[in-house]
User: What shape does this take?
Amino acid sequence: MFYRQSGVRHNSYSSDRDLFPIPADRYALWFFLALGIAAPWLIDGLYLNSYMLPWLLWTAAALGLNLLTGWAGQMHLGYAAVMAVGAYSTVHAVRFGIPWEFALLIGGLSSSVIGSLFAVAALRVKGLYLAITTLAMQFVMDWVLNHSPAISGGSHASLQSPTFALLGQDITSDAGLYYVALGWCVLVTIFLLNMRRTGLGRALVAVREKDFAAAILGVNSFYYKIIAFATSSFIAGVTGAILVATFYFLASPEQFSVNVSIQVLAMVIVGGLASIIGSYFGAALILLMPGIVNGLFAGFADMVGLQFGPETLAHIPNAAYGALIVIFLMVEPMGLGKIYGNIRDYLLVWPFDQMKK
Assistant: This one.
């Protein structure tokens, strides 16, 4: 009964363009934000930094890719490459004595430059051809990281990250590192929530739907594709840097391989293209569900007395996890965000929708 549009009156254009005109949406937002802030007191430190922190950071990465793939319609299989550029640029900048605040900007801008080079391919090819082109660029970046000791230390080496610090204060506690991840994820979310209401967001959607028709309407597809790649890459670069500084504590080429690009793309697709809340759901499913499925399967095997070898126990839960993703997409091809939207739309009219039956 709390999802209602009755009583919501718009007396100005600004009120009509509110992000959350329905009070229940605002209450839910503040509730989950309060839970996020209180998480260090509600969750054990092990779970906080092993599950919550990486979930927030990978959500930020998924939001950045969703900006490019969901809003602008540009397929990208080299997202981990631009994350690596931001991570290594930031770590090297800090090692040269640059404060973390400026080092993160350097990492984001470096990723934007590389991401703009990816955009050059987007100006000539589309669809699967663009996906293969960006995948080739991912392999190029993998080769550079594995064969450039001055950058990464070599294929079997790692680059130690300096202690993360803000405003000259070292952040080493579990709660402090978690709040860094939470703050960055909230900033990216706020940016995307507001961007989709702007002329830039509408232009990106026009390019996604049909770039030739957008050009007829005066939308410069060349310019907006460059903007989309650069902005998405900036988010990826800063996210990669924070991921290394707060979770991995070192940078290695394996952390930003092609598998990571496919993983982030899976988060976007499973969560829902152009869906902000879907990115949260998709990141949670791809990142957290394998461990949950493994635990449930092992518990079920013990309960019924089944004996499996280590190899079977390692692969059957992964098969069940993959089947779970397929089931989700069969139920709603537009992703988990659409399932949430369907439930919300149902609650908007319940129980009055029963009157038409």
Observations:
- The CA atoms of residues 267 and 285 lie 8 Å apart.
- The radius of gyration is 22 Å.
- The chain has a mean pLDDT of 84.
